[in-house]
Amino acid sequence: MIDLSGPVGNGAIYDIELCRDTGERIALLDRVLWFNYVRVYNAVGSFSIELPHDFTANLIQIDQRINIWRKPPGGPKRLEFAGILKTRSTGVDESGLLHRVIGGPCLNWLLGSRVVLTNASVIISADDYMKNRVIVSLGGSGTYPLPSSLFSVQEETGQAPVVVPEASIRSLIDLLLDLAQSSTAQGTPLFFEIAAVGDENKFQFRTYANQPGLDRTASGPIFALEFGNLANPLLIEEYAEEVNYVSTYYLSRELDGPIPANLDSKDQTRYRRSIFARREEGMSIKEPAAVADEGWRLLNAGRPRKIFTATFKSVPGSLYGVHWYFGDRVPVVYDNKFFEAVIKAVAAAVDSNGLETIESAVEVDL
Questions:
Q1: β-strand pairing of 162-163 with 305-313
Q2: CA–CA gap between residue 293 and residue 155 (Å, rounded)
Q3: What pTM value is reported for the model?
Q4: pLDDT under 70 in the chain at which residues?
Q5: For residue range 119-166, what is the model confidence (pLDDT) as tens digits?
Q6: d(Cα 313, Cα 142) in Å, to the nearest integer?
Q7: Which of 162, 200, 216, 333 could form a cystine bridge with 224, CB 3.0-4.6 A?
Q8: C-beta of residue 173 within 8 angstroms of C-beta of residue 111
């Protein structure tokens, strides 16, 4: 147990477990010098831990698992981070002190460890297609599947818009990112991760539509400069890459030229804004079923971008793990504007003095 109730601590309690690849605990790392981790959706997070110089080195093996548990003061104990040990380093500083550091990615790393085929004839919701492709690459249908006693895929729910993927072979995580972006462009933000399942040493691929966690917009803390939980805010309005008129074409092999289709993918309010406003884009589509959907997708993706970036901080009255958490939707007030943000990433660090810092870098496409 790592208790941060000292002079600079905030009272949080950590347990860091070193485990076999199958999840059984080998040791409790309760004398670490410092550690940090980044947990994230739709990407690969990471961790780093410095062990004491007298730690038994042969206990550390590549591909072991690391579980980081955290209990904030007044909040529940949760498994904050689950990772795979992929890096070991040993060095000596100028004073002759030995430094032994381990690190690696979160479980989402597994999504980049396989390539996958996509079928252009499939018409399916984006979240269900994600699960289908994970099953055929990492699950029981894969050539080199993970053990079914440890790994599973969440049941299909069909919560995201329908997509028509192009035929390809590529990294699984690249496909998942494209599907998430396509869903978001059609109005439904889509998140994915491989989540550890508590004390059972198991892990599961999961998807979430709109937000993974709780909706705290009515009851949670407001993130604003005056409350000390908002830092480095920036609001940008960008119209240079706007697209407000889209022409899509189905290329027929039987005819010499393209057949125009769905020329009505346009936003009159936007392209009539001024004499400089209209900006067109055209695209040829190989699959006739995708012509209409692709036109509206491009039109939606070409909206003027209003982007808000900031750092959310864990401070008294707005404590991470108590008042807000990874995956939650929270309210934000900035520059006399009110909007919402989803906590997509959390970075935590505990230094050698026991000082804990928890922040979330936020980007909101308004």
A1: unpaired
A2: 26
A3: 0.85
A4: 4-9, 120-121, 142, 198-199, 250-264, 285-292
A5: 766 778 999 999 999 999 998 776 788 998 899 999 998 899 988 777
A6: 41
A7: 333
A8: yes
Please give the structure tokens belonging to residue 131: 């699960």
Q: Which of 360, 366, 365, 349 has its CA nearest to residue 40?
A: 360
**CA 32 to CA 48: how far, in whole Å?**
11
Residue with tokens 């970075």: 347
